[in-house]
From TrEMBL:
Domain VWFA, first and last residues per copy: 103-285
Protein name, as recorded: VWA domain-containing protein
PANTHER family in UniProt: SPORE GERMINATION PROTEIN, VWFA DOMAIN-CONTAINING PROTEIN
Pfam families for this protein: VWA_2
Keyword set includes Nuclease: no
Keywords: Membrane, Transmembrane, Transmembrane helix
Transmembrane segments: 20-37, 73-90
Length: 326
């Protein structure tokens, strides 16, 4: 179920006003509104010089109040205009001067188990397809590529060339490595070497279907003091999604992959047949950078949306005879 935070974007818990002093303008507006109401109350004006009974008999429709009147719409207009000027906000926007210096190091498992066909044509081929989608979504962001099985090797240094990434992905398979057994702990050394020159919090993205206790322990030790994060992309059919339960990833495998991601203070993303997992990985990469650099990001002024409510109210003053009804 979509919550309010997802619907509006950003974090509604961070709601505040960018220019809160404008809210003080509500005080004179309310006082002016009260003066207008008192001016229209003819019965109250005549009571000091007439008896109450006589005023009631001489006053026509004294108890009939219009729901829509210039007085009331003026108050609505004043409140909306003040809120717009105060600048309500709950999310931040990327500055046009903000340079993304973060890096993404992709570690692709090419061991024997990645040739499983529980997702067609194979786990490895679908992983490549997902990586290409992610790289296209990130544009010219910096990306490096590590391939691993029994050992890990840098297949492509960090680059902004998306075409180069696609080229290297096309030729990667398990036959390139002497050992086809998956040893995710071997990923640490080459990935940290690539990230050693990173100027911003970056991400290690591991696409695999299994891990080990040794890898979890090693990642927890190495990333304890790091600003970088580890995202584990679990490549394999999820039995709960209606796939092949005999060949898909088991609950034990998913739990261990989640532990690996937690060791690098990141998260695990499950494979999906649509692009929702690609979007989740992309958001996870971006949020890690912004979470550390959020002081450099300006707040998005969301008060402009209230103009769509303000304009219909203002149009009432173009009605013939409207200004005579105060």
């Amino acid at each position: 179920m979509t919550d309010l935070t997802t619907l509006l974007g950003g974090d509604i818990a961070q709601f505040h006003f960018m220019r809160p002093l404008w809210l003080l303008a509500l005080i004179p507006f309310v006082l002016f509104y009260r003066a207008l109401v008192q001016q229209d109350d003819l019965a109250a004006q005549w009571q000091p010089v007439m008896s109450k009974n006589m005023v009631e008999h001489l006053t026509l429709n004294q108890h009939r109040a219009r729901i829509v009147s210039p007085n009331r719409l003026f108050l609505v207009f004043a409140v909306l205009a003040t809120l717009i000027m105060a600048g309500p906000t709950w999310q931040q926007q990327a500055s046009p001067f903000f340079e993304d210096n973060s890096e993404l190091v992709i570690a692709l498992d090419v061991s024997e188990s990645m040739n499983s066909t529980d997702i067609q044509p194979s786990r490895l081929e679908r992983a490549k397809q997902k990586i290409n989608q992610l790289v296209e979504m990130r544009g010219d962001a910096k990306t490096g590529l590590v391939v691993y099985g029994g050992s890990a090797h840098v297949a492509m240094p960090v680059t902004k060339d998306r075409a180069l990434t696609r080229y290297f992905l096309d030729v990667l398979d398990g036959s390139l490595l002497p050992d086809n057994e998956s040893k995710p702990a071997s990923v640490l050394k080459p990935t940290l070497q690539l990230l050693s020159r990173s100027k911003a919090p970056s991400t290690v993205l591991i696409l695999t279907d299994k891990t080990s206790a040794e890898a979890i322990e090693n990642f927890a030790t190495e990333f304890e003091q790091q600003q970088h994060q580890v995202i584990v992309w679990a490549i394999g059919e999820n039995p709960q999604s209606g796939g092949n339960s005999t060949e898909g990833l088991s609950d034990t495998q998913l739990a261990s992959l989640s532990q690996l991601a937690n060791a690098g203070h990141g998260k695990m993303i499950r494979f999906t047949h649509d692009a929702s997992d690609v979007e989740s990985v992309y958001q996870g990469i971006k949020n890690n950078l912004f979470a550390v650099s959020d002081t450099a990001l300006p707040w998005l002024d969301s008060g402009y949306w209230l103009l769509f409510l303000l304009l219909p109210v203002q149009l009432m003053w173009f009605r013939k005879g409207w200004t005579l009804q105060w």
